[in-house]
Specification:
Shape: globular
Largest sheet: 9 strands, mixed
CATH architecture: 3-Layer(aba) Sandwich
Number of strands: 15
Number of domains: 1
CATH topology: Rossmann fold
Length: 438
Amino acid sequence: MINTKHFSKVVGKAFLATSMALGLSPFASGIGIEDIVDGGNNFAWEKVEIPGTKCSDGSQYKFWVHDNPNSNNIVLMYEGGGACWDYESCSGALGLLGAANMNGVADSYITEIKAKYVAPIMNGNDPGLPFRSKTNLATNGWDAVYIPYCTGDVHVGNNVVTYSDPSGVNPPLNFYHYGYHNSVETLDYLAERFSNVDKMLLTGFSAGGVASAAVYHEARTRLNPNKGLMLNDSGPLFPAADISANSRQLHETIIQSWNMQSVFGNLPAGFDPDDMGSINSAIAQAYPGDQFAYTGYSTDYNFSRFSYERFFPGIGQAGILAKWKEDENALISQIAQMSNWSYHVAWNRPINDSHCSTIITFMGSHSCPSVRKKRWYEAFQWPWGQSWKCPGNMTSMDSFLSGWINNGQRYNNIEPYNLYNQDDPGMELYGPLIDDAI
């Protein structure tokens, strides 16, 4: 989740560090984010409010549309930002392990830092940084829809709940888990607005990544594109067919709190209500001509905490990441069996606890299945400070998107343990600065 209060400060730090490295004065004139990040969007956004759609506090839900008259392709971006299912998490008392925008979405939301810079895929370019050029992406010039997150239910809940404070100190919290209703109304509006869609890319990060898989069937049937694509960034619905599965307790909890049983009947026929992770194979089987992909990190210590921390008392970081790796392996085994699924999984990125590979910048989002330590005779190979090497094919995120979207190429990239990103000079400079903002 992007913390907009810190972003300008972080950008200023980056500019200061870079300016000093170049021997320039960082105080020459007023410096804004546009002087540091060569990217973001300047779309002519149109705000849409549909009566009856709500944020968690009952306020009006809203989303934004950019309609490029020269494009018949569209990218739908589902925003991330945690999740909640009880008083502690939905009241904000748990901090990180809660949900975003619990006080609703402001009219100016689309012009704020998060909506402007968080989504390179939606913006159509991987933004440039000092010493790193901007790269146009396969989605450059597409129609774009930004779908904010304010219901605590990964955009798919269907319940109104009164959560009571266990301590009895604070008044009860009335919470609208209206994600499913908001999603369906949004998609119905888009189906009427965009009646001739060639390619549709449904994507999202974190909680929005979950939505990309869970809402895909609804989007596909309503917008009826000639070609459908879905990219889930770090919001995996892991297979969990029985109580022994690591993610089973999380799944059972949200099914009850968000009244997910009322939504299951609207999912494709291959979905098994007793295994939330079956949605991955269900959408692939329902739409064999479409393309699906998962991207993320094997050491994600953000989403993994939501998955296990509150359900396994006393578990530490090592235990959490071990369960995450087990579940990731199960997911890869599941989707690898289907010819229309791809995966692009890197090991680690020292940004946002290795959570989300398509937010802010694609720096460090490459994947190299053959990555290894340099051998002694390779020590002086460029870059000199890098002790790791990719002797095979290193697939960058922008090349992955290009091959996958434009050419229908299937990727099966998963990295073993490595510290390549930790040794990267650019990551050493910008990683901590970006990390301080998110």
